[in-house]
Task: inverse folding
């Protein structure tokens, strides 16, 4: 099982980044996918989730209206489009895959996002 995030980096306030998370080693389309983040000195914060079919998505209040989660089951990839970035979005972003009914959860290694002028 492997989840590999990419797309992080340095962005200016008000800018955008698109994170990707490529999955392998499991049946991607059977798992809900989510993003979480951990800001410096803070705990892990859930950001967004999307269901297996990609037709239902959920967002934390802190990112609602600015971030968009999507998935491509043919490419085994989940995305997080992040717009109108602020310094509060600076964090390590992790993707994870879940099948709660079976108690399964897989995590990626994270990608750093820094929002600074």
Result:
């Amino acid at each position: 099982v492997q989840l590999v995030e990419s797309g992080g980096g340095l962005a200016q306030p008000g800018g955008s980044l698109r994170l990707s998370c490529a999955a392998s080693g499991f049946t991607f389309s059977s798992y809900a996918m989510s993003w979480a983040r951990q800001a410096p000195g803070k705990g892990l914060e859930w950001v967004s989730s999307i269901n297996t079919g990609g037709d239902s998505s959920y967002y934390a209040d802190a990112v609602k209206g600015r971030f968009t989660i999507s998935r491509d089951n043919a490419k085994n990839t989940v995305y997080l489009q992040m717009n109108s970035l602020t310094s509060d979005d600076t964090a390590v972003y992790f993707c994870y895959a879940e099948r709660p009914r079976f108690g399964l959860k897989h995590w990626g290694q994270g990608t750093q996002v820094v929002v600074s002028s």
